[in-house]
Design brief:
Layout lengths: L9 H10 L5 H31 L16 H11 L4 H26 L1 H16 L7 E3 L5 E3 H8 L6 H8 L13 H13 L4 E7 L2 H4 L20 H10 L3 E2 L3 H11 L13 H18 L10 E2 L4 E5 L2 H5 L12 E5 L2 E2 L14 E5 L1 H4 L14 H9 L4 E4 L7 H11 L10 E7 L2 H4 L26 E10 L13 E14 L7 E9 L2 E2 L10 E8 L2 H7 L16 E5 L2
Parallel strand pairs: 3-4, 3-11, 9-10, 9-11, 14-17
Antiparallel strand pairs: 1-2, 5-8, 6-7, 12-13, 12-16, 13-14, 14-15, 16-17
């Protein structure tokens, strides 16, 4: 009787097939050559491009970018030497600086790669046609785009969930501190700080785009009149209202407008609301203030310009997708804005003496801040002033609504500037996505009465040319990762040499653009210790009106209370 062979297992069969696979010598050599060429071609092409950029004056360092990592060693050594404490704490400080530099180095390598610059845009365009976005923007339905943090807010876990907050509180690294995840702590602290000065806080969480238009993101909401909030949102409102915090929640008003008019409330390719939605929110906010807070007599009448103004622009999410310059996937979107003028017919301006102070982010700046490319003098503050028929003061800053404007207020008070003098109400507007992803740090709002502005008057109007060594610089975002096109950061300069004019300070803080029109400037990559030459002017009201609302980061040295505006000299 013939014995039947034992069948092979799947693993044994695979080994037999692979072991008997024959590859010709020509194929072997072809694969070897292609692999070797690919291994060396990419860095070779990148090095050639960097050397050519240096020859053309577009790159300062003559060495290829891969050598930039060595710039971190002097920074880490300086941090170690200057730090006070034990050798262990000095080591940790130097290591933290080194880790920050390594992280930035890796991001710079990726951003400057020719593969990123030349291969990614057309590839991303194909992905968009296929319904896929990138790590910042999601492709929705009918040509709509959505900002990822907004989607994460709507679809993620409750932002008040203890496990979620614990994960965020433990997410810090040596190079990036963990956020304070609980918005209630910061809001209630702010509420009590203002109450001590008889000032009422009005909270205005601005709904995310996906909250009002979920049907544009997913077909599951098609034909359903509903709004989608984070699971913790209702609990959040109830707890604040129980503590006496006034909340102007415009979600229902915007949803009703959407259903009544049958039209979009938010921009299709941008993170922000349309002008008509913002004007509706301003009217709701004005109604709440008038009903719940006693203000002084109304000021002289404001007037709305009779003629409407048409503006059109490509949305910020579309730009974050990093498509080709001549892409034909998304077009410019047109809106009608209503700029507000004063009684003399001049564009509206905030009034520091006003009883109402508005703290706001890009939802307040859009249609007001000209550099956002959606018009000017027609934003939330302008419309609120028009609805209230009284002046309004503002502290506005794109992005980081969880802390940025409060931090600006805190700095002014610490420097002796009493921005809260005469105020009866502070409106704090921020995007609801900040509730899930923002840093709700606690801040001191104590007025430093020992330092008065008169003790340190601003320098006279003058233009100087100086050279200095960068002693510190504030953090700055990489282009394409944030829903705004411009950013200003701060560099602290020491070892000053004055080439033109007179300067008495030994150390100054200078504001510079780190990003313009979704492109990082050369200053963005400056290392600490670099010697730079700048044209500087005092940070006067004219500069503040023009640039003060652009997202800006500061260094930790609050002693440098008189900043300068700087322009790079080649």
């Amino acid at each position: 009787m013939t014995e039947r062979p034992t069948p092979h297992t799947r693993e044994e069969q695979a080994k037999l097939e692979i072991g008997h696979t024959e590859i010709s010598l020509g194929v072997k050599w072809t694969l070897f050559v292609v692999g070797l060429f690919t291994l060396f071609a990419v860095p070779a092409v990148q090095t050639y491009r960097e050397l050519r950029r240096h020859a053309e004056g577009r790159r300062e360092n003559p060495w290829p970018q891969c050598f930039d990592i060595f710039d971190a060693l002097p920074q880490a050594t300086a941090a170690y030497s200057e730090h006070t404490g034990s050798w262990l704490s000095k080591t940790f400080r130097g290591n933290a600086v080194l880790l920050q530099a390594i992280d930035k180095y890796e991001k710079d390598l990726k951003a400057e790669s020719f593969l990123t610059q030349f291969v990614l845009p057309p590839t991303q365009e194909v992905l968009v046609y296929a319904g896929s976005g990138n790590e910042q923007g999601y492709v929705g339905r009918q040509g709509w785009l959505f900002y990822r943090p907004g989607i994460d807010y709507c679809t993620g876990p409750g932002f008040l969930d203890p496990r979620h907050m614990a994960r965020r509180a433990d997410s810090g690294t040596q190079s990036r501190p963990a956020p304070q995840p609980d918005p209630r702590a910061a809001i209630l602290q702010f509420h009590r700080q203002l109450a001590e000065r008889d000032i009422r806080l009005v909270l205005m969480p601005t709904p995310d785009k996906a909250t009002i238009h979920p049907e544009k993101f997913s077909s599951r909401y098609e034909g359903r009149r509903m709004s989608v909030h984070n699971p913790s949102y209702r609990q959040f409102l109830d707890e604040l209202e129980a503590e006496g915090v006034l909340v102007c929640d415009v979600t229902d008003a915007l949803a009703q407008y959407r259903d009544r008019c049958g039209s979009a409330v938010y921009l299709a390719t941008d993170t922000h609301w349309r002008p008509e939605a913002m004007e509706l929110a301003a009217a709701e906010l004005a109604r709440l203030i008038e009903e719940r807070i006693v203000l002084g007599a109304a000021a002289v009448d404001r007037e709305r310009r009779q003629a409407s103004q048409q503006v059109n622009h490509l949305g910020d999410i579309a730009m974050m997708l990093k498509l080709r310059q001549n892409q034909g996937v998304f077009g410019r979107e047109a809106v009608t804005i209503h700029p507000v003028t004063d009684a003399a017919g001049l564009p509206w301006r905030p009034d520091p003496a006003a009883e109402v102070l508005l703290l706001g982010d890009s939802f307040a700046n859009i249609y007001s801040l000209e550099t956002m490319n959606w018009g000017a003098a027609a934003g939330l503050a302008e419309q609120l002033s028009c609805a209230l028929n009284r002046p309004v003061d503002t502290i506005l800053r794109n992005d980081d609504g969880a802390y940025a404007t409060r931090e600006m207020l805190s700095r002014e008070l610490a420097q002796g500037e009493d921005r809260l003098a005469g105020k009866k109400v502070v409106v704090w507007q921020f995007a609801t996505r900040e509730l899930a992803v923002g840093d709700w740090r606690l801040l001191d709002l104590t007025l430093n009465r020992s330092r008065r502005p008169a003790d340190n008057p601003p320098p006279p109007d003058r233009e100087l040319i100086v050279s200095g060594t960068i002693a510190a610089k504030s953090a700055a975002p990489r282009a394409g990762r944030m829903p705004y096109a411009d950013h200003i950061f701060t560099v602290d300069l020491t070892d000053l040499e004055v080439h033109s004019g007179t300067l008495t300070e030994a150390k100054i803080a200078v504001y510079l653009f780190s990003m313009r029109n979704q492109q990082n400037t050369p200053a963005f990559a400056w290392p600490i210790g670099k010697r730079v030459k700048l044209k500087i002017q005092p940070w006067k009201p004219g500069f503040f009106r023009r640039y003060g609302r652009i997202n800006r980061t500061e260094t930790d040295d609050i002693e440098l209370q008189r900043p300068w505006w700087g322009e790079v000299l080649e």
